[in-house]
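Collaborator request log, item 7. Partner lab (contact: R.S.) asked for a structural prediction of Fatty acid desaturase to inform their binding assays.
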Amino acid sequence: MLILAWCVGAFLALALWTLVHECSHDLVLPRVAGNRRLGIIASLPLGLPVGAPFRTYHLLHHRHPGHARLDVDVPARWECRFVRNCAVRKALWLAANPLLQSMRTARIREVSMADRWFALNLVLQAMFNAAIVIAFGWQALGYLLAANCFSLGLHPLGARFIQEHCTLRDRQETNSYYGVLNRLVFNAGYHNEHHDIARIPWSRLPQLRLAAPEFYDELYAERSWGALFVRFLTDADMRIDGRVIRGEGRP
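Returned to partner:
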């Protein structure tokens, strides 16, 4: 089950995350409420009530990229002290990435996760998980949870978090990925393009790059998540705190 979740489920889970992401930017349906509902429904196979809170904290990430407290993508100071440049600790950090991102929401006092959309998400997720267990057993639910965790963590797809905001070359704050796996996850690697114009759906971001080569052709970009995954684990110079930090200092 774990092998299947790693080899197949992780890609399907990241594809679902892409749909949830598009809903968070109101790019799928014409009305905001419809996008909120679809984002929650699309997140159900991920096994956790993440659709509603993802929208809240992802939009904060766009408003305050790299902010030490308001951007949940920025690792906490204790994470950086623990991981340093140790390959084993880097692997543990990637494996725990879904949990760590959830924990970082506690440092944001200006925004509450608990609202009516999160309550709806929580109820529907409980019903969905119960239906999966009744129909297919606990192992099926375990598969969904494992696929979700692999898509965000200890997997070549997890290298996406390194690619997106670590300064891999010349203090470049964000990086894109133009490899073949984009075809499976709806161009989730086109990260520079997405941060430039977040109102363009990811399915059309390659067209943006082609239309404006003067903005993107000279930027550093990754070609392989797998190679970056291995490089991150083995290169002592690559650290999780190697990124641009703003705000009142790392929490």
